[in-house]
Amino acid sequence: MHILISNDDGVFAEGINVLAEVLSDIATVTVVAPDRNRSGASNSLTLENPLRVRAVGENRYAVQGTPTDSVHVALNALLTEKVDFVIAGINHGANLGDDVLYSGTVAAATEGFFMGAPAIAVSLCGDTHFHTAAQVVKEVVLSDKEHPLPRNRLLNINVPDCPLEALKGWEITRLGARHRAEDMIKDTDPRGHAIYWIGPPGAKQDAGPGTDFYAIENNCVSLTPLQVDLTAHDSIATLTHWLSQTTEQKG
Q1: Mean of the pLDDT values across residues 117-138?
Q2: What is the helix, strand, coil percentage profile of the chain, to 5?
Q3: What are the start-end ranges of the E strands in the chain?
Q4: What are the beta bridge partners of residue 87?
Q5: Per-residue confidence at 210, pLDDT binned at 50, 70, 90?
Q6: Tell me, which fold does domain 2-177+204-250 have in CATH?
Q7: What residue segments make up the domains of the chain, in order of their start?
Q8: Which of 78, 133, 166, 224 is the most buried (most CB within 10 A)?
Q9: How far apart are CA 172 and CA 159, in angstroms?
């Protein structure tokens, strides 16, 4: 088995290195990731500049670009053989609810999915027990051999920051939601010019039973299937009716 690993925290981050170490017990692992922290990069691609790639170890490459760039160049240029999984992570911090829209970790997995590979994004809801998250991913990959995951979705996994034996279980979840983000923080640079910092994320709004937020709060692993089709299918009939009325009025 051959697994491609990427992330958005950078090729030297603790999370990605723990994941590569644990998965190397069951597969050939190739690591292709940004050369520095690119958290919040979402699905951005570098289009105006060439991508520079350098080897930083055996089967390890640092890309001067985004998480999406990293997976794209790995699957289109660096690797000549098929990969069995694209796994993004372990992210330093949760990717719950609305976070997935901004997450470079989820974006790296999405790019793998676009390229036809089974894809998983994994995040640790903290910064300590990376081995717990890595063991969860290892178990998912091994289980896939006997009971294959759906190939028409990618999987977003969030793991509580606790020892493996302290986990209370695993839950299949949906994305929760946050309130709007808090206000930006205005400051002044040393030259007296105004600068702005992105404020903290909004508080949890939809975080009840069945959501990824709820699973993590109850010390359970959250597994959320994601789709990349953003079409609001349940609104097509409503909009079709709206368009017909608008057309009649114009006529």
Answers
A1: 97
A2: 35, 25, 40
A3: 2-6, 28-34, 53-57, 60-63, 85-92, 119-125, 154-160, 169-172, 177-178, 185-188, 194-197, 204-206, 220-226
A4: 5, 120
A5: very high
A6: Stationary-phase Survival Protein Sure Homolog; Chain: A, (3.40.1210)
A7: 2-177+204-250
A8: 133
A9: 12
